[in-house]
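Cross-check.
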Amino acid sequence: NKKIITLIMYPLKLRVTPSMRRTSSSSSASGSATNESSSEDTPLTLTVLGRYARGELPRKSELSDPNNPNIGELARDQTMVRRRIKPEEKAEFVPGRGLVGSEFAHIDEEEDPERPVHEERAILVQNLASYEALLQSEFRHCFEQPNDGSQSTSSLIDAILDDPSFGEQAIVKGADSSQLSVGDIFEVEGGLSQIKIELSSPRHTCYSVDQRCGTPYGMAGIHRYALTHSLGGWFGRILVGGELRDGMRLVRTAHPHPKWTLEYLSTALYCEGDRFDMVRSAASWNRSIEELQELSMIKQLGYDEWGEEVTRLLNKTERGGDSSSDSSSVSDTDSSTSDTDSEDDDDENGDEWVQEQPKKSDMDMSQQATETETNGAADEGTNTEAQEIMKCSENFHTSTNLFVPAPSEEKLSSGIGTERLADPEG
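Predicted model, tokenized:
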């Protein structure tokens, strides 16, 4: 009785680490995650399950402008199209450009000849554990085939390996986002290839993932869920070129920043802002300036959407301004389409921050606003806050060639809301 009374009188604040957000089985559904800390002498090892080149856009001739398609007219299977490289085919990766013979957004010279090659994004890798976690979430339906009688997890994994959904160039098993850190270096076991990969950043998922998976744009979509739970994969530099084959084992040979895992970094930079930041998937900082300075000193951190945002937030914080994002911040313009309020808890041991889960009403606000715009049924004086959020996100994404709410048929016919994503084909 005393315990019950105590809990009533002193309600506990929920302390949740990112690893607690998903069920523990998500990282071990098929033995995909390996805990390196269980044995200091055993380095973490990733096994290559599939390699992917940019695929041919299906039904290209049916598009109004085949060479410059609008996202509004692309079907799911026309977004981030990938072709699985056959086992007998060679997949050579070189520094800067990545996969030889297949161009992705980080080297889209056709679109912008002056644009530099983003060497920190030479390869996009997805973890099998991320797909396993998504199959255990409310987004399982995104990977199910309507006319396929077999819907078991193993059959869905097989289908994903043949036709992935995140624009990746490789899928690996052996770890999840809580075990991989910025600056990690991987080399092929046994010297079977000279390739050397350095992890540069998490993948900031973009709205192309919503388009590919058939989910709403905004807070209710899979892209926001993947960003919140760090399930989008990761980018890497090719330090030394070489071949990558299915079945090769990538051994981690350097682990310089164990605190800054994909999960920890994604959470700190993109999951602790106010609801406006969350709707826009914009960067913010609500921890100590010392930790932000620590992050800014990591030379391996990729610039796009990560290093540039750290620099902007640090400059703003040092000037005495609010470190939450403004309308000039980079958000869902993820060039990988080749792609909650909390309290500060600056733990010197690198333990995860402490936060309450976002309120459902806040998380649903963007979707409520989207439905209001699409159906045109809401009175002007109602849902004021939802309308403000939608207006904020509309203004932001229109300025970056993106449109948050799913466009209505009326808008599609008038051309509104069909703004082209940066490289919608991936």
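Residues 205 and 216 are 14 Å apart (CA to CA). Residues 1-39, 325-425 have pLDDT under 50 and may be disordered. Passed to J.P. for a second look.
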